[in-house]
Design goal:
The complex is a heterodimer. Chain A is mainly α. Helix content of chain A is 36%, strand content 7%. In chain A, β1 and β2 form a beta hairpin. Classes of the chains: A mainly alpha, B alpha+beta. At the A-B interface, α3 and β2 of A face α2 and β9 of B.
Chain lengths: 99, 487
Amino acid sequence: MKITEATVRQVAELANLRLTETETARMAREMESILGHIDKMAELDTTDVPPMAQVLYDAGETGTLRADVEHAPLSNDSAVANAPLAGNGFFKVQLVIER
Amino acid sequence: MSVSPALREKYEAVIGLEVHVQLATRTKIFCACPTGFGAQPNTNVCPVCLGMPGALPVLNKRVVEMAVQAATALNCTVREESIFARKNYFYPDLPKGYQISQYDKPVAEHGFIDIVLPSGDHKRIGVTRAHLEDDAGKSIHDGFRDSDKYTYVDLNRTGTPLIEIVSEPDLRSADEAYAYLTELKLLMQYCDVSTCDMEKGHLRCDANVSVRLRGAPQFGTKAEVKNLNSFRFLKQAIDYEIDRQIELIEGGGRVIQETRLYNPDSGETVSMRSKEAAHDYRYFPEPDLLPLRIGTAWMSEIRGGMPELHPVKRARFITDYGLREYDADVLIQTREMSAYFEEAARVGGDGRTAANWVMGDLAGALKADSKEITESPVSAARLGELIKLIGSGAISGKLAKDIFAKMWTSEDSPEAIMDREGLRQISDTSAIEKILDEVLAANPKQVEQYKGGKTAVAGFLVGQVMKASRGQANPGMVQEMLKAKLS
């Protein structure tokens, strides 16, 4: 699969990444190599293998579901502890809407 | 902006609604944090809903049950296997960087809602699909000292379960959209999956609007209108958008596919250009969740627990209680009112009288006090007791009104109030006769007139008896006895 630098730039844009020209060129080469490897794997016939077969289960259909019962949430202090910026119990970020 | 009726007639609007309904679970969809409204910011959160690395989602079983019930109410087919998918975008109130939603295999599809138009006509509106997803948090842009520099983010709402219900583009006017949303809301309330409280954001609506020349086979280009947070705004925004598109086309312009935000203050829709670039969500199957399987046995178990929906209830009110169609329509308008009515009718033993009281005196008193029916000082059972007293002839309708007014401010039973206030109806022949004789003796002129053929004065004489008895005489008996005495 051919990955152009335009594709890399588009994906970088969607992923909020800023790449230099050198990085863009390198990413195009690397992504092409990774996708080539996946193309190779796609040659396997998986017609009868359901998606996520590796984790499918024999338990009943509700076996992996959770009862609607509350746990104790984090304290506000813990919740915002890792935030680069917080105040009044909120996370704070640079203004996100144009005024 | 408003175009002439003739121009409106030249075009036809095509509308589809996307409605988000918040499911009324105790906990979030993928973690066990409480879903309560109004908690302190960022106190109903955990590593899963904060999107911390390594935290894994676990699906809430109750969400699935509610989804099946909602799907059933919407006449949808429930997929035996549906899968969750990641919808990727960046926004500060979305800590994971993606929303867990459903894409090509939603939990429910191919349904419909029957609506009644203002003209009385019925119309069937297709429901394309209903899928489960988690809600984002809340961004607060105003109200803080440094709100000019920062956006404040509260993630309590993050992970609240939503079901998104997408209609077919079958709606042709703002009125039809209004009727559709009204019916959808009732269905969700009656099957008990959501309060649908729009003020709290439990029911949110976006509209896809396009116009085409009437009779044209192709749809026009649509605009998606967001922020329709009340029924009134929904109608205003759609009407505005239809007119805007007609004017644009008539002026030689072209509608572009875009997201527009409704501004209730100006009554206009405004393009959200910032949203345009980000429309590539790169959906892919959520690798942290297994496919959701709902087999026949579990499905029928869930469906067995379905509460009665309002169309069925309406029909039953008419056949079981002998209500008029109009009354049944009014009483099913909220689940709470229909439940109140049924309890009052059951205790009182008379559906029609109960209906009159609920829609009349009770509704009036609630309105005067700005109270919801769930906050009524007079419970359905207590109103039922009052209706029973009327039915047994112990009190007249007039006395019942007086007693009802007293019940509003006390917790006593109607019977206790009746006895305490001496308001029991007088149905004792000799007692009525005594008062009647006094009234006749005091009004010889009217008695003469009556005997001379002016029977209309009977009304005056009955009124005098009622007055003399402080409203307690049985009016039917008074009339009959008066007639007998003067003939």
